[in-house]
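Lab notebook, bench 4. Still working through the backlog of constructs that have no structural model yet. Next entry is a single chain of 342 residues. Request: give me the structure tokens for it.
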Amino acid sequence: MSEPLPLLPTSVLGSHARPAWLHLALQAVERGEFGPDDMKETEDDAVDMAVRDQEEAGVDLITDGEMRRVGFFTAGFYSHMTGLQTLEARRRFGAAGHDQRESYRAVEPVRAPEGLGLVEEFTYVRTRTTRPIKMPCPGPYTLAGRIQPGAVYKDRMEVAYGLAEVVNAELKAVVAAGCDFIQLDEPSYAVHASTPADFVTLFNRTVEGVQAKIAVHMCFGNFAGRPVAHRTYRPLMPYIFEMRADQYTLEFANREMAEIALWAEFPPEKELAAGLIDVKNYWVETPEVVAERIRTALRYCPAEKLTVTPDCGFSQTARWAARAKLKAMVEGTRIVRQELNG
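Model written out:
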């Protein structure tokens, strides 16, 4: 049975920092040196490490660190899909950027006949911890960003609606396996914020019939530790209030708490998972800095509705920094909990 969550629970967004040996294992796979059992053992060990790091830091609501995914939503998910042709990267050298990443073209309607892997991820991590677990899953609009429509679809949104069926089936499957908290990752909403009403319709279609607590994660990008958008949530409002989401996961720390006051405009029944740890900065926050950020968030969000998180996942962060930042996040939260409890 999972442990109950305290006031001001701490959590993570999804990915945990990968150790050097996991990078080496992925390279061995590319060279054909690992068999499937070798890789499963490696991934199991990586999940165990991610869980241990989170538990040692004292994080209340954890994930499996997304250790079975090669990148936030990339090969780890597209490898489960049919109907895709792999395209060459447009640029191979120089500073890291999205044009160096893999992309695909739809050659037939995209399907995932064996699912996307969330059930297997949840089933394993559930055996490794007694803490509450959140399962992150990339949303269809973000997934569609690396798929050219080809002759199968009209545009990116039509690709996304096709993927919404795939994701919806996966979410229902992981709920049937026992998961009660799902986070849909849609950074592309904030990156391409010109059609927010369309995103709401797509989101609600994606989570239709999914009987679990639903969070939506919207950020401004974090590939190689860099954002890719004008970093403001204002264009998405008030449309996103209509999402069938219980919790909104938003980033504030790397923007020096800019727009935290926007939370006062959200419906009172919604929860905020506030990003109060800057994953794009190798300066490690002190617990006192974290505590002050929490106090700022509490000016606009009641403690009963606030969860403390990093801005984004730690996949682009070195492990030593990720561990130190998680410990500071937990210690800073404890300071404020003690203040609230008198």
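Notes after review: Residues 20-73+116-340 form a domain with the TIM Barrel fold (CATH 3.20.20.210). The CA atoms of residues 77 and 116 lie 6 Å apart. Flag for follow-up if needed.
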